[in-house]
Amino acid sequence: MKETILAFTFIGASVLTSCKKDYTCTCTSDCSGSSITTSTTYNSTRKKAKESCDQAAATPGCTTTCTIN
To answer: N or C: which end of the chain has fewer CB within 10 A?
Structure first.
C-alpha cells in the first residue's frame, strides 16, 4: 500500500513540475524604416508564454513580428 501511494505521489509531482519551461520570445519591430530585435525569456507554460509574447507584439506605430521558441 505504501509503495502505491509513493508511486502516485512521484508521478503527480513529476507531472506538476514538468509543465513549466523556459520559452524565448523573439520580436522584430520595423519602426519607420529601422529594425529592432528583442528577446525575452519566460519561465511558464507554453500557452502563457505565447500570450505574453503576443502582448509584446503590440507596439504602437510599428509592424512587429514575434515568434516563441
So the answer is: N
Specify the 3-state DSSP secondary structure of 10: helix
pLDDT along the chain (69 residues), means of 10: 62 61 92 87 92 80 87
Q: The pTM is what?
A: 0.63
Where would I find the H helices in 1-69?
Answer: 2-17, 46-56
- Cβ(23)–Cβ(46) below 8 Å: yes
CA distance 48 to 12: 21
Distance between first and last Cα of the chain: 43
